[in-house]
């Protein structure tokens, strides 16, 4: 297999990543305990060389994050006038444990960039323990959505917040809620002591997301002495009930399980101060509306509770529902608004045509080309396809709603920690999941709605990092134009990587690894090399090329068709000297000069966008029959295509004959042509589109 060298590389990267994250954890521990600065200095001085290396890495990571935060600001959100108001408010806030003197010292210590940055953490009413945690995570400035909502939330407003994926919406509610509970308006009425009832309720659509947000509350809330509890289905009730009985400040969970706990009399919202609906649109879309309404309805005096609603996508119907849950004078901070581009601007959005049957062959190559050695999440429409594909891809694991919760957790934590680098998931992983180093998203087919596209592709390119989202599809059947129009994404229509391109890349990597081999091996292998040179009949360069190929894992290079990406097929263009409006006309022309069984053997027939031709794939072994056969048909030409012409695309929403999009013509960088277009009347290779599983309602993923 061609991926050996790259896998080695990936393992090295993962190792490094783990060392880095360990360093962060250690640092956080030392910050959060109450040891004096002097002790810390001594500890630091004693730190081993590798520790200091880790610190160096961490510093540069922090600088990177700071730069990214500043860049994000420049994207146009945090206005300086607002920020200066924030600074004033902070100076006036008596409840804040940081006194003015300390603040001055801090500001003096802060580097220039921090002072100049209006979104610097020090410019907000964020108390010392939270600042310490933020610092330990390399966060020195708030992202725009956080900066623009912080005061409103801390000062008691209901709020609807919207920012693109990966822009830090979680901390946008975590930080002000925690400050409010410990230093702000919610402090006075907050229940404390054993058996206390929760002050905060956070609802999320999936278990994985609930756990992730709960972990944030544990880290940040823990620094302030607040406890949290995550309630989600598939996990035993008992441990959740024990926690609730002991008393918690923050409850995070999925609607179904929260409702169950209410019905069992385990939850009392009489002292609730905050309700958060994260990924609100998804929760409501999944059919949780009634559960959510029931849960929110359990708050007796809604006037005393602040309600916050966050998502990267807020369809109009959700905004309408929001008016039922939020107070009339709620604030709205919408950083996407009417901007055309609704998906992440840090992500390269690519479409590669591919038949269902070629997926498992093509995906490893896409990973090799686009994952930059990082992790990949592949989205399928159904649970079955996720399991099937995970079985076919080496080292991949599935994640979907039919997998036992305990296994789901093992899988996700293995993926997070880099134990394996390809996750094949349904929409259960589409929302909110923030996983370090996911560089590539592959969607096996276009999702049914634009929101799903936005959230899935948003699992990469987070917190100012970049990423790639590749969508595979059958242009004849997909509604790409609709997704393109509604998401504002301008897709790059590219060809699938050719095996020869991949082999070339692998060859360069292999050459690099060969230079790293010690000269000490030469005397041992020299006589075998001389023997080979003398007997092979090949030149030294040719022999070395073979050795490199073997090192890279190649013993042969297979061809792959431009149209369906299938191995051992070749793409042919048919022209009939007149327009070809229908597939049946194209088949009719072919039948005029080819035996029926050969016509039956072709796959993926699609009409060209100019209406003058049809392309299809033929088995390589049948190519000669096709090409020589045309001599018997006047006016007909058949040519092997080097670059795929633009193809007609189905445009469901507009119903035009020649859709606005079009396929092919694109080139994979360094590749040898575009491809696309499908139809297979013989065995309907594309019939398994698998919409059946759907994703509405509980447990469909
Ligand atoms: N101010 C900040 N500076 C640097 N990194 C940050 C900051 N705030 C959040 N992050 C990091 O950004 C990443 C994305 O944050 P988060 O998961 O909250 O995004 P999101 O907007 O909720 O995305 P999604 O819409 O996909 O749920 C996380 O890794 C988080 O730790």
UniProtKB/TrEMBL annotation:
Region (Disordered) location: 1-102, 649-701
Annotated Gene Ontology cellular component terms: nucleus
PROSITE patterns, per the entry: DEAD_ATP_HELICASE, HELICASE_ATP_BIND_1, HELICASE_CTER
GO MF, one example: RNA binding
A Pfam family matched in the record: GUCT
Annotated family: Belongs to the DEAD box helicase family. DDX21/DDX50 subfamily.
Protein name: DEAD-box ATP-dependent RNA helicase 7
Organism: Rhododendron griersonianum
């Amino acid at each position: 297999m061609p991926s050996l060298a790259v896998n080695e590389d990936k393992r090295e990267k993962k190792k490094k990543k783990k060392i880095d994250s360990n360093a962060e954890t250690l640092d956080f521990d030392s910050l959060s305990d109450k040891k004096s600065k002097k002790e810390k200095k001594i500890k630091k001085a004693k730190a081993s060389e590798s520790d200091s290396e880790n610190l160096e890495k961490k510093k540069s990571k922090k600088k990177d994050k700071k730069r990214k935060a500043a860049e994000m600001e420049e994207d146009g959100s945090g206005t300086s006038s607002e920020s200066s108001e924030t600074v004033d408010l902070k100076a006036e806030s008596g409840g804040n444990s940081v006194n003015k003197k300390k603040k001055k010292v801090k500001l003096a210590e802060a580097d220039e960039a921090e002072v100049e940055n209006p979104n610097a953490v020090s410019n907000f009413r964020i108390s010392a323990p939270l600042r310490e945690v933020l610092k330990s995570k390399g966060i020195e400035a708030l992202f725009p959505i956080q900066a623009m909502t912080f005061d409103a939330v801390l000062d008691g407003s209901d709020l609807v917040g919207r920012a693109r994926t990966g822009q830090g919406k979680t901390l946008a509610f975590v930080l002000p809620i925690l400050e409010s509970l410990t230093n702000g308006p919610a402090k006075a009425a907050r229940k404390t002591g054993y058996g206390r009832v929760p002050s905060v309720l956070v609802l999320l659509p999936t278990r994985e997301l609930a756990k992730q947000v709960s972990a944030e509350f544990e880290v940040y809330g823990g620094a302030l002495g607040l406890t949290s509890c995550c309630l989600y289905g598939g996990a035993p009730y008992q441990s959740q009930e024990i926690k609730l009985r002991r008393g918690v400040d923050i409850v995070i969970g999925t609607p179904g399980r929260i409702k169950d706990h209410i019905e069992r009399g385990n939850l009392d919202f009489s002292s609730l101060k905050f309700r958060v609906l994260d990924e609100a649109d998804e929760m409501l879309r999944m059919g949780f509306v009634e559960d959510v309404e029931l849960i929110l309805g359990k708050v007796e005096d809604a006037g005393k509770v602040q309600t916050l609603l966050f998502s990267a996508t807020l369809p109009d119907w959700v905004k309408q529902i929001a008016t039922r849950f939020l107070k009339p004078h709620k604030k709205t901070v919408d950083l996407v608004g009417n901007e055309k581009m609704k998906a992440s601007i840090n992500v390269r959005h690519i479409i590669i045509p591919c038949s269902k049957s070629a997926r498992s062959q093509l995906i490893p190559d896409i990973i090799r080309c686009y994952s930059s050695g990082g992790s990949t999440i592949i989205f399928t429409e159904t649970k079955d396809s996720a399991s099937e594909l995970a079985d076919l891809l080496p080292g991949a694991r599935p994640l979907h709603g039919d997998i036992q919760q305990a296994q789901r957790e093992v899988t996700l934590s293995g993926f997070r920690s880099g134990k394996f680098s390809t996750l094949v998931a349904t929409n259960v992983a589409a929302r909110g999941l923030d996983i370090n180093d996911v560089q590539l998203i592959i969607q096996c087919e276009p999702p049914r709605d634009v929101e799903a596209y936005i959230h899935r592709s948003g699992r990469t390119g987070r917190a100012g990092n970049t990423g790639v989202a590749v969508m595979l599809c059958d242009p004849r059947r997909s509604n790409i134009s609709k997704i393109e129009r509604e998401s504002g994404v301008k897709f790059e229509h590219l060809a699938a990587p050719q095996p020869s391109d991949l082999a070339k890349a692998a060859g360069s990597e292999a050459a690099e690894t060969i230079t790293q081999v010690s000269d000490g091996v030469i005397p041992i292998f020299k006589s075998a090399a001389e023997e080979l040179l003398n007997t092979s009949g090949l030149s030294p360069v040719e022999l070395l090329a073979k050795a490199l190929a073997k090192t890279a894992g190649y013993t042969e290079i297979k061809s792959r068709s431009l149209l369906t990406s299938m191995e051992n097929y070749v793409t042919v263009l048919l022209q009939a000297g007149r327009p070809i409006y229908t597939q049946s006309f194209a088949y009719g022309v072919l039948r005029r000069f080819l035996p029926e069984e050969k016509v039956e053997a072709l796959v993926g027939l699609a009409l060209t966008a100019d209406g003058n031709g049809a392309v299809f794939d033929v088995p390589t072994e049948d190519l000669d029959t096709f090409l020589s056969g045309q001599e018997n048909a006047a006016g007909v030409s058949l040519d092997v295509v080097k670059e795929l012409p633009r193809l007609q695309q189905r445009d469901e929403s507009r119903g035009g004959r020649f859709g606005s999009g079009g396929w092919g013509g694109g080139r994979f960088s360094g590749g040898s042509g575009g491809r696309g277009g499908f139809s297979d009347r013989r065995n309907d290779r594309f019939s398994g589109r698998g919409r059946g599983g759907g994703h509405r309602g509980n447990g469909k993923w």
